[in-house]
Fold:
Amino acid sequence: MKDFYRVMQRFVLPYQKYVLLALLVNLLAAVLNVFSFASLIPMLNMLFGMDNTVYELMPWDGPEGVKGAVVNNLYYYCYQLINLYGRGTTLLLIGLFLIVMTGLKTFFYFLSSAVMVPLRTGVVRDIRVLLYNKVLHLPLAFINDERKGDIIARMSGDVNEVENSIMSVLDAMVKNPVLIIIYFTTLVFISWKLTLFTITVFPVLGWVMGYIGRKLKAQSLDAQQKWSLTMSQLEETLGGLRIIKAFIAEEKMSRRFLQACDSFRDAQNRVSIRQVSAHPVSEFLGTCIIVIVLWFGGTLIFSDHSSIDAPTFIFYMVILYSIINPLKEISRSSYMITKGLASMERIDKILNAQNPIQESADPKALCQLNERIEFRDVHFSYSNNSQEVIHGVDLIVPVGKTIALVGQSGSGKSTLVDLLPRYHDVTGGEILIDGINVRDFLIRDLRSIIGNVNQEAILFNDTFFNNIAFGVPDATMEQVVEAAKIANAHEFILQSENGYDTFVGDRGCRLSGGQRQRISIARAILKNPPILILDEATSALDTESERLVQEALERLMKSRTTIAIAHRLSTIKNADLICVLHEGRIVERGTHEELLELGGYYKHLNDMQQL
Structure:
């Protein structure tokens, strides 16, 4: 329960007004319920002629006490009505009173549930927004280590589980304790002896339901993990559908997905079977308790000095039966809490993930590159236990110059440039801009002066205009059009059905590779950054598309400080400096001609591309 209360403190506190209003409404409903059932006593007495006592109005502070005065005066007013209107009319009036009280009670019960709806939906929305924002701000290393399908499963299935269990429980936990307190007070008021006996058998119900709930959490956690695996399979299938079809692997993927679904189904079956066992077990135990209390109450009535008569005992049993249902709801709630907390644990793995990339406590201003970028003895590894992928790199990038990084796949080119905008932080050495460590700048300021054009042009399922203006929220149509013209994208955009308002599809699936890349370049042009990072921007294009993209890149690189990762050496022949990386180290550096004369790694790469 401590974990449940921590969840409530984190997410329910902003909605405490709804909780307080629900408590008030439930209190009124419980009181009305007691008064409505209290009308059963005089009704039974009149129906069966069980009471011939003559009642006189009794003072509230009399020798019989408050309880005696309440019972005596209710009977007094009832018999006053009988004397005035007769038994039949009085019985009808009491019945109408019961109907009115019940109507008011049910209205307040409805109101209590309606009041909790904004809280329930608001908390779930808050969790989803927190998750999304956390994912946005976590480093790329965390996202790379996690399966995307698993993250999606936590934002969908796990959050839904929290809604269906913990938030549903919250509604019950606000209502049922109030009912139990009111009903229990009424039971003590009617007969403390019978109530003392009753509470000795109730713990049995709580222990059995608690045992069922304790077994559930591990099973629920296992089921949610199997659901994540299923979502991961789906995400991989959607992302690799072209390869699946190309290799005629539909049946293989179908078998994999069926296996994941079967595994989730088996885990879900175990959870559901234990869940559905809660109600029949509590129903059986509740009946057992009722029978035991009936027996003990009967012995009190049959005794010569009974403090309770038959109609009052029936009223007692009605209230007792009424209190059993809230108790069962609380028992079922404890079971559902453990089920929801299993999902909350998986959500917290993201919410509580530590971000090693921290802002500077005393950030320095940054709005332009004035002198140079310097990599000074830079080392990097993805974790403390992993091998270094960058080993003591020293590199100076003067302002306005173009530096090219070449090397075999896995040599550390992309990792090295990812350290500049702090997608990762160096584990040794430092990176400086105009002599100041990049850790001393605000991340937002640092990344605002850097533009990226990657090998995979990442577009969003939005219009051409919004994709180009993605990083410039106040961009005008004229500015977007000018950027598209420089990027050789204006013509094919105009040829689309709605021009700049045409949607490009998921990840730009409605465009060719060259078109996607030119939109990506237009986006970088509009941002107009002083530092430009090109990560193999033309390696995946055909000759014609490469020519158009290369022209756009040359326009983009003018008067900018550029770090270009190149796969095709022909695209970086005119770079001011070419650095050859091998196993995380710069092994050669110089111009194109100088490196060819060295006859080393660069010449080997160049000769291979000439074949």
The radius of gyration is 37 Å. The first helix runs from residue 2 to 11. The chain has a mean pLDDT of 79. The first strand starts at residue 372 and ends at 380.
